[in-house]
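Thread: "does anyone have the structure for this chain?"

Original post by V.I.:
We have the sequence but no experimental structure in hand. Need at least a predicted one for the grant figures.
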Amino acid sequence: MIALAGNPNAGKTTLFNELTGSRQHVGNYPGITVEKKEGEYIGKDYTLHIVDLPGTYSITAYSQEEIVARNFLTNEKPQAVINIIDASNLERNLYLTVQLLELGIPVCCALNMMDIAKSRGIEIDTDKLSALLNVPIVETVAREGKGKKELMDAVYKLVSEPKEQGGLKISYGEDIDNALIEIEQIVTSKNLLTDIYPARWTALKYSERDEQVMAAGDAVDLSASSDIKKIVEKVSLHLKKTVDTYPEAVIADHRYGYINSVVKQGAIKKDRDLDKLYLSDKIDRVVTNRFLGPLFMIAVLTLLYKFTFSFSEMPVSWLQRLFDIIGSSVASAMEEGLLKSLIVSGIIDGVGGVISFVPLIMLMFLGISLIEDSGYLARVAFMVDRIFRMFGLHGSSALAFILSGGIAGGCAVPGVMASRTLKSRRERLATILTVPFMSCGAKLPVFSLLAVTFFNKHQTNVMVVITLISWLGALIIAKFLRSSIIKGEATPFVMELPPYRFPTFKGLAIHTWERTWQYIKKAGTVILIVSIVLWALMTFPRLSGGEKAAFEQKRTAVFASQETNAEYVRQKIEKINCEEAALGLKKSIAGRIGTAIETVTHTAGFDWKMNIALVGGFAAKEVIISTLGTAYSLGEADIDEHKSLSDTLAGSKDWSPLVAAAFIIFTIFYAPCFVTVVCIVKETGSWKWGAFSMIFNTLLAFILATAVFQIGSFMGY
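Reply from O.Q.:
Generated one for you, tokens below.
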């Protein structure tokens, strides 16, 4: 087993995709929500199993990604580590390399992005660097697939011809070196964690006050661990008194000093004017400019929005027609009854309505992947950091907001998962609880329907306002949470701005398909179950025999009237059928629930049919549209088979522009869908935050919707 490690933006994921292609699968580490990617590289005479570790700048356990990467290296003990190094930022990337070498694991370095390094006038003597570090080093350009065969051959040689690994030993100065020797003696004599970590590495981690290692030491031998902590405390006090610093800082300084000495021994030459700006720097002067940057960002987001909806319109309509044909064919082939209703209304209409949006979702994720892989998404986070910090959030929260629908209809689930990059638990929690307010892809059809129906002349402006409300609302609520139940100091925002790159077709294809497949799986599992459950709730209990007999008598009376106009008779029968279905819906479980809460929701302008749709939205927001269609088509007296849902709502006495506005506000803010709630629980590690999100968001949504409706009514709208 081979581990793939490297700094973020060093090309690790690109190399992993090149090495494994379609021979990869994605899951989570056991008990942890950090994504785990595995795949196979098939060489001429060998096959290597590769695990792609989370991108990390070090293996000091601060962030969840660093903990996962380090635990994998120490617990799973891979045969070797491929360390991906950005050749254009050699000194910074070598910090992780030094830590890997200190851990004593066989390392093979992939000196990636050599083309960028050369374009910047950077010359690297690979052989010299390899000799100084005592590890094999291979030059690569991952996005073009260059050097991957040579790299894997070097890795195979490394694992097939193993050498004794003593681990890199750096001098950290007399004070710390003496402390390390003393700690090593205790670790060795007491066998403290020696089955997991090298003795010197354990000593280093204690010196760095690594909480995870110290907790593990306490659990094995509390007495020995306490003795080591006393040694660390003694050297810490000495360093504080003499040079006003701490062991952690001294260790980091000496690691960088070691790297600097390696680089200065002729391993790297920079033949360039120090005042020369790289192309990335020149672009950043515009796209991250205080005034031009936000305008450029809005232009990019608008372009993505137009691209997604313009090019998806036709394939979406094709899929909708396909499911209409399937539904009609199944309906005509089956006899009337519950089974037919379940298959046509519960399954085909429910799942088909969601699957038909796959082209839109795929194009949207393609656009997001393009922006992300090009390096621009990091600039967005950099620009909005100042604004986000005013509301108690972090610049890295911007990515979570965008993935949740801050651009053009994402999904709250990847948005919640993207919060893993935040190191502060409080900022991470505030981000997780507010990203569901974004206009996700499931909400967009609801907003579009109501905008077209009740604000036809201003639908574009309405959609823009909805987006602004969702962003501003999320930030204000984040400020409230960070000032009350999630108090805490803001952490500094330090983010690497990677150079701009042309995304590879393979990388875009893999990223787009992974995200689209998650959406399809959701439609085939969660939405299918929800559709069937809602169908049952809107079907049972059925009308009593007496009620059915009464409607049958009405139909008999129409046929007995000797009316000669066949069209008139058909309309009368359709009207009776509709009234029967409407009564059946109102007396169903869903109808009774909707009617029961109408005594409260009428203050926001919602009737029992709207309530049914909104209750269904607790499971999945995609269900709101289909539930509205069912409820209102069954409730209208005048039936026109060519009448759209938009026309039905526009002609309904229960709806008005004011009610639509209140409905939109409620949909923006109320409880996230069930899958998102489950994701919140997994990410926070507690059901209480999932419950809080549902209850707090729904109460907030209802208060805001009621305020909109009551103020609008008072003003005469």
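V.I.: this helps a lot. The CA atoms of residues 378 and 496 lie 8 Å apart.
O.Q.: and Confidence is low (pLDDT under 50) at residues 28-33, 634-642.
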